[in-house]
Amino acid sequence: MNTSTPKPVRHLILILGDQLDPDSAVFDELDPSRDHIWMAETHEEATHVWSHKLRLAFFFSAMRHFRDQQRNSGRTVHYHELTADPDQDRGRNFAEILTKDLKQDLKQLRPEKLILVRPGDFRVKSMLTDLAARENIELEWREDRHFYQKTGEFDAYATGKKSLVYWLKMPEYAELNALDCGDRDVPRFFWDGETDMACVKNCMSSVIQHGWSHHIPRLMVLGQFSLLLGIHPYKFHAWHMAMYVDAIDWVSLPNTLGMSQYGDGGIVGTKPYCASGNYIQKMSNYCKGCRYNPKESAGGNACPFTTLYWDFLDRNHTSFANNRRMTFQIKNLERKSPEQMDAIRKQADQIRRKLDAGDREWKTARD
Hints:
Layout: E1 11-14, E2 35-40, H1 43-47, H2 53-72, E3 77-80, H3 94-103, E4 113-117, H4 122-135, E5 138-142, H5 151-158, H6 166-169, H7 189-192, H8 198-210, H9 215-229, H10 233-243, H11 249-260, H12 277-283, H13 304-315, H14 317-320, H15 327-334, H16 338-356
Parallel strand pairs: 1-2, 1-4, 2-3, 4-5
């Protein structure tokens, strides 16, 4: 029986679920005899936003394959695998699990330092920073080699540039709501795809089946419908994080809250990506056979995109009036007669009330 004391660990290398890179900087100068790897599936990462089953399977499967590859190469990997019973798990998040490991399983190993690549989520970075300070253990951040610049160089380059916002403006960025949207959440059919709008139904079919859709349907169909409807920008981001297998916070938030929903008021994009149903008809074949007419903005056959588009411009007229990139659209809005705008406002309000109540379609008084 071997009763020898385990050899102390020099470095405990933390690998997160979106950092599965065999050429990662964390492996520089790794000594398999003195350095160990630590990975964890956590309840919080799986549930802090709702998650598509495929998203969970994708992340956990990739993590387990990476774990096995590292072990097969002769490296020691401490891996926390979620169980069917949450009460049997060692904790709900990275901090709880790692703290318990440091105090119990890894206590005799006494790692001198924690090493990991900078996380792509401000929440996770803050959590691990606090843990290291609390446990009085050195924490070394290493650069992500998927990027062309080191963090310091990036900060100097990105300052003042509108398209590079996440690490420069978090956590306040997540709270931005430039168009003063209320607390409205995405409609029910953003979860199950059951709607009579052909474009939305088609796009949601891909999301539900595969946890993915091309960038253009994301932006100009699903994102645009949320924008025109007046969904709270962070709630659209949370939905995107839940439904897309490739959604990571540092990528998703500027693209959803910023570019798609114009929640940041122009930091990422200088104008909102908004258009009527006519745009969708010109750029796709979704409208063929759809019960709605993209050229109509009011009445029983009016396309909801067209109705909501004009209502969106009307609601935000003051905000967009001085935006040069919105000049053409605002002028077209101002050509509408009072009678036309009254009908559009009433129909848009009816659409919102119906969807807020959980309905999947709506009827006008003329139907």
